[in-house]
């Protein structure tokens, strides 16, 4: 998605350790018009999949997920992150490790809001090692629902998450694919969606 | 806002201790079409205020805030919650106490994204004791920016937050105002916006 790649080039900041900061438009300050365009793109890509629910994780996944839900007219569920958990009877839970923050969270989704009839699209802002997506896939598996695919705003293609998702036979659509952040430069995988 | 009040009546759940659960459409599962309508309403109410930025707190404020930003075509900043903080040179910070969860958080906003030129609209999902809003107001004060008003999706009018905001001379617009949750029943303040 050219508009997104241009925005990453102009407003993303490459930090040491292969970290790309996009808090100017995606995960602290949010550009709602860009999010709307992102939602349109995901809705277009999954238009034929009879999506009934969108699943994401708080907090940075919410804006692109809600904009996608707005186009597809389906509810969005954001999994909650918890440091620890006691009551879990009415919740699906999965463990999610954050490599950048070196933390371990549990994510939860209420059993009330997903069921085996659902065709789900998983949306998240970033894909690196894939921990958040695999947490959501584990919850989808517990709920026995059909995952139609995964939509990612920014994929770091040089990290293992993308390949691991595809290895499971799951459809992955990433709107910007980063080949490298070497020498402080963003290089995209050259294939273009538009 | 009648559509919102009807949704609260049909899908909200009143728990003991004056807790209203609306995780069916607002803060766990999200109804994007309702959020869009909420964004339209806030945009209409603050159409003459030359809003340049919207400020909210993760996570439940993000959906209504981003939909409002979409209508006003301005960036949305969601303050981050932290249990503890070390590096703060480039951040505005404020303390926020949660009465329901009995926790104390720090919320932060990057100094890069707000400035004294900004006319800000604060948006949040719930107003009870007003802790989150007062945290955001403190950050607005540190950044010396102009707060044009506060937009709340659901106000619990029987708790002190709303009056405290108005006592400071700040404009408050709440789309649903709850007078009472006594006996498990939702009763609204009778004035109607539409």
Automatic annotation (TrEMBL), chains A, B:
- Name a biological process GO annotation: xanthine metabolic process
Protein family (similarity comment): Belongs to the purine/pyrimidine phosphoribosyltransferase family. Xpt subfamily.
Cite the NCBIfam families for this sequence.
PRK09219.1 (NF006671), XPRTase (TIGR01744)
Biological role: Converts the preformed base xanthine, a product of nucleic acid breakdown, to xanthosine 5'-monophosphate (XMP), so it can be reused for RNA or DNA synthesis.
Among the GO molecular function terms of this UniProt record, one is: xanthine phosphoribosyltransferase activity
InterPro entries assigned to the protein according to its UniProt record, in alphabetical order = PRTase-like (IPR029057), PRTase_dom (IPR000836), Pur/Pyrimidine_PRTase (IPR050118), Xanthine_PRibTrfase (IPR010079)
Quickly give the catalysed reaction: XMP + diphosphate = xanthine + 5-phospho-alpha-D-ribose 1-diphosphate
Q: What is this protein called?
A: Xanthine phosphoribosyltransferase
Q: Keywords on this record?
A: Cytoplasm, Glycosyltransferase, Purine salvage, Transferase
Q: Where in the cell is it found?
A: Cytoplasm
- Keyword Zinc assigned: no
Top-level taxonomic group = Bacteria
Q: Which residues bind xanthine?
A: 20, 27, 156
Query: What is the originating organism of this protein?
Result: Paucilactobacillus wasatchensis
Where is it mainly found? cytoplasm
Q: Supply the enzyme class, top level.
A: transferase
| Record's keyword annotation contains Transferase | yes
Query: Where does this protein hold 5-phospho-alpha-D-ribose 1-diphosphate?
Result: 128-132
Question: Tell me, how does this one assemble?
Answer: Homodimer.
Give me the Gene Ontology terms describing cellular component: cytoplasm
Q: What is its EC number?
A: 2.4.2.22
Q: Which CDD domains match?
A: PRTases_typeI
Pathway given for this chain reads: Purine metabolism; XMP biosynthesis via salvage pathway; XMP from xanthine: step 1/1
């Amino acid at each position: 998605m050219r508009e997104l790649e241009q925005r990453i080039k102009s407003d993303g900041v490459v930090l040491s350790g292969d970290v790309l900061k996009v808090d100017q438009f995606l995960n602290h300050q949010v550009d709602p018009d860009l999010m709307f365009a992102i939602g349109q793109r995901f809705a277009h890509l999954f238009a034929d999949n009879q999506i009934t629910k969108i699943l994401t994780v708080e907090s940075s996944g919410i804006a692109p997920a809600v904009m996608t839900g707005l186009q597809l007219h389906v509810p969005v569920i954001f999994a909650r992150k918890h440091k620890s958990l006691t009551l879990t009877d009415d919740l699906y839970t999965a463990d999610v490790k954050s490599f950048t923050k070196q933390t371990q969270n549990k994510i939860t989704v209420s059993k009330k809001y997903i069921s085996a009839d659902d065709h789900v699209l998983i949306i998240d802002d970033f894909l690196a090692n894939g921990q958040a997506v695999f947490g959501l896939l584990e919850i989808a598996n517990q709920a026995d629902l059909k995952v139609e695919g995964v939509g990612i705003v920014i994929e770091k293609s040089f990290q293992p998450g993308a390949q691991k998702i595809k290895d499971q036979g799951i459809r992955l659509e990433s709107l910007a694919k980063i080949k490298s952040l070497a020498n402080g430069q963003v290089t995209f995988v050259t294939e273009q969606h538009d």
